[in-house]
Design a protein that fits this description.
With 341 residues, this protein is α/β, with parallel strands linked by helices. The protein folds into 2 domains: 2-150 and 292-340, Quinone Oxidoreductase, Chain A, domain 1 (Alpha-Beta Complex), CATH 3.90.180; 154-287, NAD(P)-binding Rossmann-like Domain (Rossmann fold, 3-Layer(aba) Sandwich), CATH 3.40.50. It is built from 11 helices and 15 strands. The protein has helices at residues 36-41, 93-96, 106-109, 142-145, 153-162, 179-191, 203-211, 224-231, 247-255, 294-305, 321-329; strands at 2-3, 25-34, 55-56, 60-68, 80-83, 125-128, 134-136, 171-175, 195-200, 216-219, 237-242, 257-265, 285-287, 313-317, 336-340. α5 packs across α6. The mean pLDDT is 98. It binds nicotinamide-adenine-dinucleotide and zinc ion (2 copies). Nicotinamide-adenine-dinucleotide (NAD) binds next to α1, α6, β9 and α9.
């Protein structure tokens, strides 16, 4: 499944099967998730498009080890694994902490995540450069687990940073209950005693929000911030996670944030929130994180194993993958679309 030409729809094409070189691992892909970031990527203009085309899509991948390159140890053919996407050099100080998403040398070394610069997971086979990027799945179902590599890991990282503020009596807001958002609600319920308020523009997404544990699910409109203030006795929310990231949602996120709250902008729709006396309540912290660490991926998978998160999925064959992207673009996917190549 490749994005081949700027502005054109992605296409299913036939390419040669890759072969693992020294240190590499070849996966037979069992499942690959479809993320809204790919829609954003496919809207970028030619002038500053950062990847080489064609780009095989898919940055959420799970597979079965099909072949091991020379020197790979610790894995066996047939192992079921999930792929850690935001791969780094493995040696810099960030990577040493498992924060390969913030590798200081990836750009300089030309290291890209599968599906975002390197060949991606929406394919029959996926080549992985190092076995440390693979987390064993064991008995976990790859189909419902694969979205956790991004739609789980990204909100997990964002939420974990705010847990000290999510004490009993606090409120957390999730804006956008799509792929990432519907997992975020479950993570908040599993990890904190906070009351969870979900906001979305579509009724069926609000239903999903309630099904997966939101205490309140409200329409995301120009009155949303006011409603969150009403629900919180005028104080606002202690943490707001914006999985849309457009200017109206980011502005609303700022307006519903309590004194000393965290506003985390995860969506990449270009919105920004000014910080300064009078712009938000006092001591609001605003951040825009990217994905999560290797250790955090292991933690998210443990939560799935414990039954604390369950991703709602719609499945598609490889030939139907372009339709999954169309439906995502139209806002019609309930939960996450997963391709079964
Ligand atoms: P998605 O399409 O599955 O979900 C988006 C949800 O937002 C949908 O339910 C949609 O109805 C809702 N929505 C749209 N406009 C809204 C509004 N004004 N108010 C409230 N809800 C609204 O998308 P996704 O795959 O979950 O991705 C969410 C965002 O996160 C995207 O921008 C994506 O690019 C970004 N993302 C960022 C990172 C990161 O590391 N920062 C990682 C993954 C995804
Ligand atoms: Zn993504
Ligand atoms: Zn590094």
């Amino acid at each position: 499944m490749q994005y081949r030409e700027i502005g054109a729809a992605p296409q299913v094409v036939t390419v040669p099967d890759p072969e693992p070189g020294p240190g590499q691992v070849l996966l037979k892909v069992s499942a690959a998730g479809v993320c809204h970031s790919d829609i954003a990527v496919m809207e970028w203009p030619a002038e500053n498009f950062p990847y080489a085309l064609p780009q095989t899509l898919g940055h959420e991948g799970a597979g079965v080890v099909a072949a091991l390159g020379e020197g790979v140890t610790g894995l066996t053919e047939g192992d079921s694994v999930a792929v850690y996407g935001p791969q780094g050099c493995g040696r810099c100080a960030k990577c040493a902490h498992g924060k390969e998403n913030y590798c200081t040398r990836a750009a300089e070394l030309g290291i890209f995540p599968p599906g975002l610069g390197a060949p991606g997971a929406i394919a029959e086979y996926l080549l992985i450069d190092d076995s440390r990027f693979l987390v064993p799945l064991g008995d976990l179902d790859p189909v419902t687990t694969v979205p956790l590599t991004d739609a789980g890991l990204t909100p997990y990282h964002a939420i974990k940073r705010s847990l000290p503020k999510l004490v009993p009596g606090s409120t957390a807001v999730v804006i956008g209950t799509g792929g990432l958002g519907h997992v975020a609600i479950q993570l908040l319920r599993a990890l904190s005693p906070a009351r969870v308020v979900a906001l979305d523009v579509a009724q069926e997404k609000l239903e999903l929000a309630r099904e997966v544990g939101a205490h309140e699910a409200l329409l995301s409109d120009e009155r949303a911030a006011e409603r969150v203030r009403e629900l919180t006795g005028g104080l606002g929310a202690q943490a707001v996670f914006d999985f849309v990231g457009a200017q109206p949602t980011v502005t609303a996120a700022g307006a519903m944030a309590a004194v000393e709250a965290d506003v985390t902008i995860v969506g990449i729709a270009g919105g920004a929130l000014p910080v300064g006396i009078g712009s938000t309540a006092f001591e609001v912290t605003v951040s825009a994180p990217y994905w999560g660490s290797r250790g955090e991926l292991i933690e998210v998978l443990e939560l799935a194993r414990a039954g604390a998160v369950e991703v709602t999925v719609e499945t598609y064959g490889l030939d139907e993958a372009p339709r999954a992207y169309e439906r995502l673009h139209q806002g019609k996917i309930k939960g996450r679309a997963v391709i079964l190549p």
